[in-house]
Amino acid sequence: MQDTVRVAVDAMGGDNAPLEIVKGAVEAVNEREELQLFLVGNEGRIEAELAKYQFKREKITVVPASEEISCDEAPVMAIRKKKDSSIVVALNLVKEGKADAFVSAGSSGAILVGGQLIIGRIKGIERPPLAPLIPTLKGVSLLIDCGANVDARPSHLVQFAQMGSIYMENILGISKPRVAIVNIGAEEAKGNALVKETYPLLKECKDINFIGSIEARDIPYGMADVIVSEAFVGNVILKLSEGLAGALVSAIKDGMMSTTRSKMGALLVKPALKETLKKFDATEYGGAPLLGLNGLVVKVHGSSKSKEVKNALIQCIQFKAEGINDKIKENIIKKKEENMN
Amino acid sequence: MQDTVRVAVDAMGGDNAPLEIVKGAVEAVNEREELQLFLVGNEGRIEAELAKYQFKREKITVVPASEEISCDEAPVMAIRKKKDSSIVVALNLVKEGKADAFVSAGSSGAILVGGQLIIGRIKGIERPPLAPLIPTLKGVSLLIDCGANVDARPSHLVQFAQMGSIYMENILGISKPRVAIVNIGAEEAKGNALVKETYPLLKECKDINFIGSIEARDIPYGMADVIVSEAFVGNVILKLSEGLAGALVSAIKDGMMSTTRSKMGALLVKPALKETLKKFDATEYGGAPLLGLNGLVVKVHGSSKSKEVKNALIQCIQFKAEGINDKIKENIIKKKEENMN
């Protein structure tokens, strides 16, 4: 028998809450026996959504929370004041050991602040990065950090590289993952002040396989497994990838509908094209974990539909099985001992 | 009769020099009567390339330069020491009034430093930005800055916004171009230190149509005409757009070749698809001008083929006709007078 994986879900977070969140939760418990979910938020609205579906009722518990945190609110203030918000209540379930993981499509800032204030950072971790997988021609790469840690320091980026490496090795099973730093040229002398300071520190790091700089143009070709960047640049890479893929696909579809000849061709290429585009669809890859916390926090896209929510919930099974944050903690302790010797 | 436009071309710059540079130069003079070109670099190699083509010989003058500046060299040192390099010799032709413009596919750093040291900045301009046009679903947007000005200050970004506005109004004919700053959220409170400081300054600017922040995901949809960013982020946006479009197109082509059915369809959709992809092909839009100098400097992609070189040379005709740098100069003088009153 498999271990139960208990996930506290922010049912009120994201553009399509609670509708798509609840739908994704139902799809997840219907697909994976080991999931046990807490849907946190407005009880009446959640129950109304749940009433639409068939599922084993004992798999989903509704936990009431009377407040919501919007994306416009200042995160620190919101987490401190709104004690009965879906984010705070759900994070407390993880803190108290009642849940193994927290999943939300809500405000990135509030999730980041809440994760740090309520669950807490692993001792020795300076900043917890948000690390989504992005599709490439060769599979996926981990983009670390895309979170709210703007204006990072070199020591933060070094920890991002180490945590990203542990993630790719344990979750994706890639041995000696290739780590690269996003830069505007391949040479060590290139870059802004942050990259120039970080580069030699990464080169010295013995526990990662640092391959140097990566130019943004090489990212979609899968030239590195772990792509290190400060959050502002990481966010631009993530969002631009999504936007450009969407825009290009819509232009291609319009183009194919422009003549009778190409319309006929479109019918024939459609199945193969769909398969190709699925590989480049970020929603296939679930959520992004916030690494380096004393518990599992997973952020899904604000515009997530049920599929993305479901995938993120299923991902938690593997995150728990692999104990990603425990492995990060062991690594930090090991490094400390090495430094003391 | 049209005015002659004289362009000094760095025949030795870029991955495909002198072959593709010379080919592009020939194609340009064969297409546009008013172009008069100086091909600067290794005389023997340039003449050997020229010998392959048919063109009016009086349209192209070979100017010998014995040295080359590579992308690995420190730009300031290279420009100071290599007085007989193709970049320095060509820039001097512009400085001396023998040429109207300089075009190069060589080292961005050397072009930027050379442009400033040899041709000089317009008085009052703090930093000259590199401003390429990028394809969007609605046409093109100007991305400013993608150059070597890393670690920019807020006042630089404000000037980039003003210069970009003048460019889009005069070169593209867009009235009141929409100016936006690249950010990681739409709200004014979002962003890194640089963006937070720059945002209120842009809001106060009366000579631009500032529409606020733009998230990277909205860039390909053409949500702004002038996209302001510091150079590191701008470079990431430019390079990632190129890389992702290339990767996606190659994945789509492979996908279409995967089954017999889709292969047949591919034949039918090909013409329409080609038309669509052409719109997203950055090489169609020629080079990127370095704005704010006392002369016209245009950078083309290091990997440029003849088509991109030809387009950049033809672009110089319009740049000269519109007097883009003169308009920037007038604007700076006008602002100074306004501030004195």
Quick overview of this protein structure:
With 341 residues, chain A is an alpha/beta fold. Helices cover 47% and strands 16% of the residues of chain A. In chain A, α4 (86-95) runs parallel beside α5 (108-119) and α6 (154-170) crosses α7.
Describe the protein in words.
The structure is a homodimer of 341-residue chains. By secondary structure, the first copy, chain A, is an alpha/beta fold. Helices cover 47% and strands 16% of the residues of chain A. Chain A is built from eleven helices and eleven strands. Chain A has helices at 19-31, 43-50, 75-81, 86-95, 108-119, 154-170, 193-204, 231-256, 260-279, 306-322, 324-340; strands at 5-10, 35-41, 60-64, 101-104, 133-136, 139-144, 178-183, 209-215, 226-228, 288-290, 296-299. In chain A, strand 5 (133-136) and strand 6 form a beta hairpin. Chain A is globular and about 60 Å long. The mean pLDDT of chain A is 91. The interface between A and B is large, with 65 and 65 residues.
Strand order of the largest sheet of chain A: 3-2-1-4-11-10
Gross morphology of chain A = globular
Distance between termini of chain A?
Answer: 43 Å
Most extensive interface, chain pair and sizes: A-B, 65 and 65 residues
Which spans of chain A of ≥5 residues are poorly predicted at pLDDT below 50?
none
Helix content of chain A: 40-55%
Oligomer kind: homodimer
Overall average residue pLDDT of chain A: 91
Radius of gyration of chain A: 21 Å
The succession of helices and strands of chain A, N to C, reads EHEHEHHEHEEHEHEEHHEEHH
Count of helical stretches of chain A: 11
Q: What fraction of residues of chain A sit in β-strands? A: 15-25%
Structural class of chain A: alpha/beta
State the major sheet of chain A: 6 strands, mixed
Tell me the number of strands of chain A.
Answer: 11
